């Protein structure tokens, strides 16, 4: 029986195996950054241990108050919105809007369309005078969104484009915005904001506005923000202060599952003007209707009722009385929704 043979011993000078290949020394650049990256990693872990919530965006600082008050919902005259859904996934719908008999605006017609999927939102509209507006939101990740808004108008000075990007961190939010930017001479309006949760209930932030309407004219202002949220998120208080002497403070509270109240105070204490406006509002969500009421210190009392007689049909009645000017406004409207989709396509259970 032949004795077993063994391979010859490996020579380190000629063996190409990874264990014997000499390791390349780390570059001086990497070695110099190593303490910084290590410190940043330890800081990130320490910051994450606080488990602070995301404070939301600066744009939505008074979101709950605006949803309760009538500022974004009030209208007068006659109004009709006819909406037709053409697809559910992706979502695609068109809308015809009519406004007649308003004291503050001329009669108008507007055609709009909306397209949306998981990553993109597109909205466009054109009115009877040929004014076009469009909006696009592109989500690159769950916490990173790019927004573009544009408006093309036949009136001089009314056309605009706005570029914006939102980034939501674990406990902070960043926003950068440019309105009518022109790279050649850097004219336009530029806005940047940072909002940081300091505790689980308190968030502080800063917003900076840089205006450059012409190459030889510019303005730079900064405002400071604060937001306090209760543990159960049933009340929220906010404040925004500008060094020029402008203060806006809001308070929102959810009294009941269907009842919300909100207060807004705006103060201006500049050498040229001293003024203050206080607004109180309430919102009631009933089974098939929503009622909003509002009172402010300028003597205006307003209310809006949105009554749904069916999921696809709503009737609106709005009214406002200005006691100081002895004036009144009334508005009525309808919202009708229709669809060419079957109940199964809309995600509803089949009818038997």
TrEMBL record:
GO biological process: monoatomic ion transport; protein import into mitochondrial matrix
Compositional bias annotation for Polar residues: 14-30
Compartments reported by the entry: Mitochondrion outer membrane
GO cellular component: mitochondrial outer membrane; pore complex
A Pfam family: Porin_3
Stretch list, region Disordered: 1-30
Membrane disposition: Multi-pass membrane protein
Main location: mitochondrion
PANTHER family linked: MITOCHONDRIAL IMPORT RECEPTOR SUBUNIT TOM40 (PTHR10802)
Entry protein name: Translocase of outer membrane 40 kDa subunit
Species lineage: Eukaryota, Fungi, Dikarya, Basidiomycota, Agaricomycotina
């Amino acid at each position: 029986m032949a004795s077993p043979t063994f391979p010859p011993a490996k020579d380190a000078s000629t063996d190409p195996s990874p264990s014997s290949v000499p390791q390349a020394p780390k570059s001086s650049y990497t070695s110099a950054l190593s303490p910084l990256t290590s410190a940043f990693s330890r800081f990130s872990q320490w910051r994450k241990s606080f488990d602070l919530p995301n404070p939301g965006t600066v744009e939505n600082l008074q979101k709950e108050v605006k949803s309760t008050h009538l500022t974004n919902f009030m209208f007068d005259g006659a109004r009709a919105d006819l909406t037709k859904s053409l697809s559910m996934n992706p979502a695609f719908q068109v809308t015809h809007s009519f406004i007649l008999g308003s004291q503050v605006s001329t009669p108008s017609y507007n055609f709009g369309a909306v397209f949306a999927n998981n990553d993109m939102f597109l909205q466009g509209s054109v009115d009877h005078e040929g004014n076009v507006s469009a909006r696009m939101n592109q989500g690159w990740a769950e916490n990173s969104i790019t927004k573009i808004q544009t408006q093309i108008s036949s009136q001089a000075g009314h056309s605009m484009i706005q570029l914006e990007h939102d980034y939501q961190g674990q406990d902070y939010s960043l926003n950068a915005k440019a309105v009518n930017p022109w790279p050649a001479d850097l004219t336009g309006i530029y806005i940047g904001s940072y909002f940081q949760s300091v505790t689980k209930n308190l968030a502080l932030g800063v917003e900076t506005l840089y205006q450059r309407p012409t190459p030889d004219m510019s303005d730079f202002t900064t405002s400071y923000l604060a937001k306090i949220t209760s543990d159960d998120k049933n009340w929220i208080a906010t404040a925004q202060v500008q060094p020029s002497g402008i203060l806006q403070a809001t308070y929102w509270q959810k009294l009941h599952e269907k009842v919300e109240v909100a207060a807004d105070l705006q103060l201006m204490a500049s050498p040229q003007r001293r003024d203050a406006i206080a607004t109180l509002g309430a919102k009631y969500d009933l089974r098939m209707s929503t009622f909003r009421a509002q009172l402010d210190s300028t003597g205006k009392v307003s209310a809006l009722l949105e009554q749904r007689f069916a999921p696809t049909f709503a009737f609106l009645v709005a009214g406002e009385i200005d006691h100081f000017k002895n004036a009144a406004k009334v508005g009525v409207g309808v919202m009708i929704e229709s669809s060419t989709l079957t109940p199964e396509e809309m995600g509803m259970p089949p009818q038997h």
